[in-house]
Amino acid sequence: MSNRYAFVGGSQGPWRVTEIRSVIGASLEPAERLEIVNSAVEFLPANSAWVLQSVVSNVRYAKRQELDTLRAVQPTLNRSEALTAVLIPIKKTAQWWALAQDERRAIFEEESHHTAVGLEYLPEVARQLHHCRDLGEPFDFLTWFEFAPEHTQAFDELLRRMRDTKEWDYVEREVEVWLHKASGRGL
Ligand code: HEM
Predict the structure, then answer these.
(1) Distance between CA 151 and CA 155 in Å, rounded?
(2) How far apart, in whole angstroms, are the C-alpha atoms of residue 145 and residue 140?
(3) Domain 18-24+60-181: which topology?
(4) Is the Cβ atom of 119 under 6 angstroms away from ligand 1?
(5) CB atoms < 10 A from the CB of 138, how many?
(6) What does the DSSP 8-state code read for residue 121?
(7) pLDDT value of position 183
(8) 47: CA distance to ligand 1 center in Å?
(9) Which residues, at least 6 apart from 57, have a Cβ–Cβ distance to it below 8 Å?
(10) Which ligand 1 atom sits closest to the C-alpha of 120?
(11) Global pTM?
């Protein structure tokens, strides 16, 4: 299976867009539906507003013990009850990328407790991190989250806590794309 993905905002796909909201910087054009394709997409497909390309890559910052903890509790994507998803494309600043790996790790975890805070919301939230900085894309990351609709409030709280950290001083663009999937077979 390819590690390349493309998130196509347009008129097709299982996910219905319920809201597109800019958090920091420019938003994305409106779209009705989202399709996730497990390959690179060369051209903007017909009837689509945007395509965001990404790659699922290796971890950068997580330590052994954090990986073990995550693996023990994190749920898989595509659970039948996870009818709400949020795609959050993020771009970090030039200052962030000018830091050394150990400096970024220190801000990410020792100061901001990204993983420790995030773990409090597992196993309710399933997640997948996509990288796109080296593909020359407008964002550096596409972050993807899935959960049952009753956990929306908890997820909102997680977003507030994340954005209140030192790590977010280095975020210069962030958009929330809220999605809903109909339950049942064939939908
Ligand atoms: C649901 C709970 C969450 C957990 C357990 C979690 C965990 C992690 C971990 C372990 C990494 C580091 C991966 C590596 O070592 O390369 C990471 C990276 C990242 N996460 Fe989360 N996260 C969560 C929620 C979030 C949320 C809500 C956002 C956005 C609002 C977010 C945005 C990011 C970004 C942008 C990165 C990449 C950071 C970088 O490489 O500079 N995460 N997350």
Answers:
(1) 6
(2) 17
(3) Alpha-Beta Plaits (3.30.70)
(4) yes
(5) 14
(6) T
(7) 82
(8) 32
(9) 3, 130, 131
(10) 2
(11) 0.97
Residue with tokens 């809903």: 180
On the CB side of 91, CA atoms within 13 Å amount to: 19
Q: Distance between CA atoms of 179 and 161, rounded to whole angstroms?
A: 21
User: How many angstroms separate the alpha carbon of residue 162 from the centre of ligand 1?
Assistant: 9
3-state SS of 11-79 is CCCCEEEEEEEEEECCCCCCCCEEEEECCCCCCCCCCCCEEEEEECCCCCCCCHHHHHHHHHHCCCCCC
Q: What type of residue is 10?
A: G
172 half-sphere exposure, CB direction, 13 A CA radius: 10
Residues found in the chain: 187
Domain boundaries defined on the chain: 18-24+60-181
List pLDDT tens digits, range 107-161. 999 999 999 999 999 999 999 999 999 999 999 999 999 999 999 999 999 999 9
Asked if 56 and 3 touch (Cβ cutoff 8 Å), the reply is: yes
Q: pLDDT below 50 — which residues of the chain? A: 186-187
